[in-house]
Amino acid sequence: MRIALLASAACALTLAACGASAATDPPAASAADGVKLVTVGRFAKPLYVTAPPSDKRRVMVVQQGGKIVVVRDGKVLSKPFLDISSRVTEGGEQGLLGLAFAPDYAKTGLFYVYFTRRDGNQEVAEFKRSTSDRASASSYRSVLVMADEESNHNGGQLNFDREALLYIGTGDGGGGGDQHGSIGNAQNLGSLLGKILRIDPRRSGSRRYRVPSSNPFVGRSGAKPEVYSYGLRNPWRWSFDRSNGNMIIGDVGEGTVEEVDFTTLTAARGANFGWRVREGNLPYEAGSAPQAVAPVITHTHDSGWCSITGGYVVRDPALPSLRGKYLYGDFCKGVVYSARLTSAGAVDDRPVSGLGKVKLLSSFGEDARGRIYTVSFGGSVSRIAAG
User: Fold this and answer.
1) Mean pLDDT of all residues in 175-179
2) Which CATH superfamily is domain 41-310 in?
3) Smallest Cα–Cα separation from 199: which of 120, 130, 126, 109?
4) Which of 155, 213, 312, 327 has the lowest tally of Cβ within 10 angstroms?
5) In Å, what is the CA distance from 30 to each residue of 34, 328, 339, 354?
6) Sequence-ordered alpha helix ranges (H) in 7-57
7) Structure confidence at residue 32 (pLDDT)
8) How confident is the model over 304-317, as pLDDT tens digits?
9) Cβ(306)–Cβ(18) under 8 Å?
10) Where are the domains of the chain?
């Protein structure tokens, strides 16, 4: 996500000011999708929405500055669930970027956040619930710290799989063109950046976390064992399909192409998504990206896209017109798109009718019921509901 370049209203709302050309959206289907946006509330620079497993009363809104806010039974609570503002560097693409609750959260009260530290490095940390509406900031335990010399391309998405393993999306380290070392961070298996990492975040003896022995690069000389997939520029928002565990990644492009990658979780093991040798479906820089996974969706900056916002496959039974479709968008365009995805590609890729535009579309979210939310960096969080 390019908050640093696009957060000003003049830039984000007037694409020509950002060097991107305006474009006309392709027509939506002739029959309305029968959906609408229902406002949940307004927040300070919201970046993500999620919910504790099986908790159908609450959703949690992540704010860039370091607070997580509770929405309980539709009401925004005045006291935050967690406030770690004192630990967080806020601004540009830095801040409190991600949140994931442990699958056994109801029992253990453990959850994990991804944030930019005061020294500019990225950290995944563990905290513990005090009550259903409040967490203990003093329960902080550092899990993983990643050195990061630049301020952009920080990733930030955290997701658990069905085996209670934590997946961490990291950006390529920032700057332009991944000019880090001879092949860039994303293609370098010796770097944690530009990757999807997989760990068991629970403390294991004196170790802060455990690396699963089934990770693809365990034991390979020069490779970080935490790496599960690689070759990513900035997987700002990515998700698992709650129905089958498939992985869908919105990978932010450099200057030409935005992309969506799709794979089964098994096929993602050791997968190379191509950056910096490829940007989307185009060559970017000379080098080798063996067996690079081709994107299933691409959109160009010439057509008004600037920073893709990955979303979710709809499994909400209240939205039959969208069920099984992947929802995604773009920070500049603000239009929610839907498509049916397979490893062979995407079909019926088009704007969702009835939703209008979401200015500064920074994220999507999913609650315990499978309901989907849109998040605007301008402050509004809304739920996609039947029209």
Assistant:
1) 96
2) TolB, C-terminal domain (2.120.10.30)
3) 126
4) 213
5) 12, 20, 16, 12
6) 9-13
7) 75
8) 999 999 999 999 99
9) yes
10) 41-310
